[in-house]
Amino acid sequence: MSRSKNLAVKYLVAAILFFGVMTLSGLMSAAYYIQPDFLFGLIPFSIAKMLHIDTMIIWLLMGFMGAVYWFLPDEFEIEPAGIWAAEILFWVFVSAVLVVAATFVLVQWGAGTETTLWLVQQGRKYVEAPRWAAIGVALVMLVFAWNVVGTALRARRFTGIMAVMSVNMVPLVLLYLIAFPKIDNMAVDLYWWWWLVHLWVEATWEILIGCIMALAVMKLLGTSRKIVEGWLYVEVSMVLGTGILGLGHHYFWIGTPDYWLGIGGFFSALEPLPLLGMVVHAVYDAGVHRMKTTNRPAFYWTLAEAFGNFLGGGVFGFMITLPQLNLFAHGTQWTVSHGHFAFWGAYACGVLSVCYIALQEQRRLAVVNGRGWVWAFVLLNGGLIGMVGSLLVAGMAQTFFERAIGGSTLEAFIAGQENPWFVLGMYSRMFFGLIFTAGYLTLAWNLLALGHREAAAVAQPAPAE
Amino acid sequence: MTPGVLLVTSVSLGFMVLAAGAYALLYGIGRFRNSRGLLVSAGFAYGALVLDAAGLILAAPLALEWKLLIAGSALAYLGIPPLTWRYLQHTHREERAHP
Questions:
Q1: Residue A403: closest CA among chain B residues belongs to which residue?
Q2: Whole-model pTM over 0.90
């Protein structure tokens, strides 16, 4: 295997390990809602939640990078430019994440000084990592961009997919720089912070996963480059057309001018449209290939990506996106429900699909199938759907009792937290969280054992080269 | 907007997109299998979407511009599956003709 593919495997393994940390810290966060004094005096809820959210970003980012490093040599038939730097930075990246996680757990917080910002945490949701680590992440992103663009330049070959990916590297790197400035005015700070969070997630990440899935579909189903690239251009224009100004739905209640109510509501309402096109495309691809493939898990995770993105982003998002409704629903478990489903569908399923594609080639398996992945697929998706359903019920109870009836007072908040529907939702979320965890463990075992211990999964070995 | 209407409106909006998904899914499978039954079911799914959108436009306490947006979305949902299908068929046909 090439150096790039070896690096890709390392990134994908790290991604799956941090997926585990995310799952564990998610379970911990869920436990505080049932037992508020859980780990009292040791790890507060805010730290568990921080670990949960930050490792979600990290594992997906590592998954994307692993996927890109996997496909780069196939795309250009040469090793990526500056692969040596990427290899060194992989270890720097992983070490930095571990040190930051240990700092979060052991130090937790500090005084409101520059030292805390540099060494403990920056205190901004999703990008809490202290500055030294944030600089490291920026450096990793910069080298990643160099790997992609530099390789295309060195190969003197720009395919449509790689051109889109290369252009996307510019906002991917630049937007992360918003993680650094310390802005005292909270409205101004949130205004720019959403550029990072929303435009990373609903613009640059969408394009990156679009490119990755385009490469995955070519590999998995043998779909021609022309078809895949044609669809990628349509998808990218639609996603950018609706997603960039869809940013406005985060500006409803942070002190920005009220024209954002109209802009945010309008463009957010259009966001399900490209997702519907993806559903049709998924059906078409599945039909053309009659659900036949040599890598069933990768194929099913690809389908799950299209449907999960539609349901999580489209259906769950549209319920709370109009300003009149968002006024009551924002910041409740309803939003959490949408966030969980959308991230899972849009990104996690895609990364898992690439894991199986890489695994098939790395272990030289002619066919990837078996029972292990089916169990993982069912438990993970079943657990996730159960969790988002539970959070939806809890969020509706909060919206109804705390916000709409109670008027968002402190008493209403407490009453909302004690409401039987909310409590039921929290218990139910914990139960499905445990199912999801079982799914994660099954997935990890399956990825580890497929082709080794789970021999029945492999119909026949690939002929030696 | 009363608390009850707030929940009903939200759920109706979610149902509208869900019905659009059901329409797209049934339309796609129906076209592939050349199944009249599935295409009729797709029509029913879209019918449910239209009824839901009509309910929102007539009864939900939303401003006129949002109601227009709902009406426009309902129309767009009608067109997306056949347009996407035709586009995919066209690109695949082109690919076969000029590989």
A1: B3
A2: yes
